[in-house]
Amino acid sequence: MPTTALPHQDRQVILAVDLTAAGARAHRTPGAAVLRPFDGERFVRLVRAADQGLLDLVVLDEPFMLHPGRGRVSGRLDPAVAAARVAPLTSGIGLVAALDTMHLEPAHVAAAIAAVDRASGGRSAWQVGCPAGVSPSDERWPVQAVADAARVARTWDQDVSSGGAALDAEGRFRVDHDGVRFAVRRASTGQAALPQGRPPVVMRVRDERCARIVGAVADVVRITVADPERALALRKVLHDAATDAGRDPRELRVLVEAYVVLGSERDSAHARLAMVEALEGPDVGGGGLVVAGTPSDLAGVITDWVDGGLADGFLLRPSALEADLDAVVRGLVPGLQQRGLFRERRAARQTLREALGLPGVPTAGRPNPVAARNGARAAGPGRTATRGPVGAARVPAPLHASDLVTAR
Question: Domains in the chain, please, with CATH?
């Protein structure tokens, strides 16, 4: 593990799960590749399992499609609509919906996320979506994404800050008017209508150039890295960017993406990863961290990276949704709890901003204190087999996560 890791607050690990594959790609049963259309009941069951397992976030990314089969894609699923529909069935988990502003006006994005926030009682977040055909590594994307994020946030805020009149995302006035000839009622999508004030903004980062832009505005950043040194470099850039923008960098949450294949035994997890790679290609992790092993192995990796100040938590992308999510809830969470790194229960009626320890944005008629999440640190002897980008050599188990840089 790098010895120059940034200092971190003594707080519990943030755990998120990406359930985009519940609607987007072929969701696979262990041992077989089975293409299935979107199943609403299954989606609800997965979200509720994550909620009951005390996870912090469920993420629905852009490729949330109705059917994964080639030539049979009959339409896109709206992540915000799906999140709003499942929100009343959950009790504490944050719901992150990815929406891009190429096809939607920022005011419409703000309204969609506001609907999730009201339905969930203040547990929504917006991931700034990258439009189809535009790569997150495109030089134009982070600049446009930051500008769009500012416009959406302004839409959330304007109802309070501008009094009786507000501007929409295009600078046009939205007013209330009750006259003799006509009446106009403007829809309120702003801060006064939202339980947590302004929903957190989530953005993705793959390189330093993007991090320098994103660090100035994002609340939560998901980074794609394959080794600790890379994570440290990106986090330092994010830290400096937040500081330069006049923000407290300790209020920025950094999550490492990890593609996970979990099993009761390490050998069975490796065998399943090999099968998935044979079906989908060797780059199942998208150039990021891949962890194949037991839930205890994954707990060891998370412990090392978070205790090393490289991240505040992990965004897990399960290889097999049901099997791996069950392993996370029944194996990983108890393992982190034993290390003192994860909560035993949720605080009642907590907004997502409070749960993540983000600075509060007061709402009309409701105080919004930030509840700090502190937990005693207990280092654990995690062991795992992890792999970097395509072409990197496998690290033979057992190895500590701190050995990854020198062993590759």
Answer: 14-407 (3.20.20.30)
